[in-house]
Amino acid sequence: MIFHNPAGAPELACEQCGCRWFDRINDTCYECGTKVSAESIAEFKLAVEHFRARETVRADEPRAAGTPAVR
Ligand SMILES: [Zn+2]
User: Fold this and answer.
1) Which of 10, 42, 55, 57 qualifies as a cystine partner to 47, CB 3.0-4.6 A?
2) How much is the pTM?
3) What is the DSSP secondary structure assignment for residue 8, as one 8-state letter?
4) Domains of the chain: which residue ranges?
Protein backbone atom coordinates (compact mmCIF):
# COMPACT_ATOMS: atom_id res chain seq x y z
CA MET A 1 0.00 0.00 0.00
CA ILE A 2 1.38 3.42 -0.86
CA PHE A 3 0.31 6.61 0.84
CA HIS A 4 1.12 10.13 -0.23
CA ASN A 5 2.00 12.64 2.45
CA PRO A 6 0.74 16.27 2.26
CA ALA A 7 3.86 17.21 0.29
CA GLY A 8 2.95 14.58 -2.30
CA ALA A 9 5.83 12.29 -1.46
CA PRO A 10 5.04 8.58 -1.51
CA GLU A 11 5.24 6.61 1.72
CA LEU A 12 5.18 2.86 1.99
CA ALA A 13 2.54 1.56 4.39
CA CYS A 14 1.61 -1.89 5.68
CA GLU A 15 -1.00 -3.76 3.62
CA GLN A 16 -2.63 -5.11 6.78
CA CYS A 17 -2.71 -2.26 9.30
CA GLY A 18 -1.60 0.83 7.37
CA CYS A 19 1.41 1.37 9.64
CA ARG A 20 4.25 3.26 7.97
CA TRP A 21 7.06 1.97 10.16
CA PHE A 22 9.01 -0.99 8.99
CA ASP A 23 11.80 -3.16 10.21
CA ARG A 24 14.24 -2.44 7.41
CA ILE A 25 16.40 -5.44 8.19
CA ASN A 26 13.60 -8.01 7.89
CA ASP A 27 11.22 -5.95 5.71
CA THR A 28 8.37 -6.49 8.15
CA CYS A 29 5.79 -4.14 9.68
CA TYR A 30 6.65 -2.89 13.17
CA GLU A 31 3.01 -3.04 14.26
CA CYS A 32 1.73 -6.38 13.02
CA GLY A 33 4.82 -8.10 11.64
CA THR A 34 3.44 -8.50 8.12
CA LYS A 35 6.12 -9.11 5.54
CA VAL A 36 6.43 -6.38 2.93
CA SER A 37 6.03 -7.91 -0.51
CA ALA A 38 8.66 -7.41 -3.18
CA GLU A 39 5.92 -5.96 -5.40
CA SER A 40 5.15 -3.32 -2.78
CA ILE A 41 8.79 -2.34 -2.54
CA ALA A 42 9.11 -2.19 -6.33
CA GLU A 43 5.90 -0.14 -6.56
CA PHE A 44 7.16 2.21 -3.87
CA LYS A 45 10.51 2.77 -5.58
CA LEU A 46 8.68 3.56 -8.81
CA ALA A 47 6.42 6.04 -7.00
CA VAL A 48 9.47 7.75 -5.51
CA GLU A 49 11.02 8.07 -8.96
CA HIS A 50 7.83 9.57 -10.36
CA PHE A 51 7.63 11.95 -7.42
CA ARG A 52 11.20 13.16 -7.97
CA ALA A 53 10.57 13.62 -11.69
CA ARG A 54 7.48 15.68 -10.88
CA GLU A 55 9.41 17.78 -8.37
CA THR A 56 11.90 18.69 -11.08
CA VAL A 57 9.09 19.77 -13.41
CA ARG A 58 7.39 21.75 -10.65
CA ALA A 59 10.57 23.72 -9.97
CA ASP A 60 10.30 25.24 -13.46
CA GLU A 61 6.54 25.48 -13.72
CA PRO A 62 4.64 25.93 -10.46
CA ARG A 63 1.13 24.50 -10.36
CA ALA A 64 -1.67 24.58 -7.82
CA ALA A 65 -1.50 22.01 -5.04
CA GLY A 66 -3.75 19.04 -5.68
CA THR A 67 -3.80 19.48 -9.44
CA PRO A 68 -2.92 16.21 -11.13
CA ALA A 69 0.32 16.31 -13.05
CA VAL A 70 -0.23 16.38 -16.80
CA ARG A 71 2.15 14.33 -18.84
ZN1 LIG B 1 1.18 -3.81 9.83
Assistant:
1) 10
2) 0.67
3) S
4) 2-50
Q: What local confidence, expressed as pLDDT, does residue 39 receive? A: 92
Phi, psi of 23 (to 5 degrees): -80, 105
Residue 47 C-alpha to ligand 1 middle, in angstroms? 20
Q: 28-58, pLDDT tens digit by residue? A: 999 999 999 999 999 999 999 999 998 877 6
Give the Å distance between the CA of 46 and the centre of ligand 1.
Answer: 21
Amino acid identity of 9?
A
Q: How far is the CA of 20 from the centre of ligand 1 (A)?
A: 8
- Expressed in angstroms and rounded, the spacing between residue 31 Cα and the centre of ligand 1 is 5
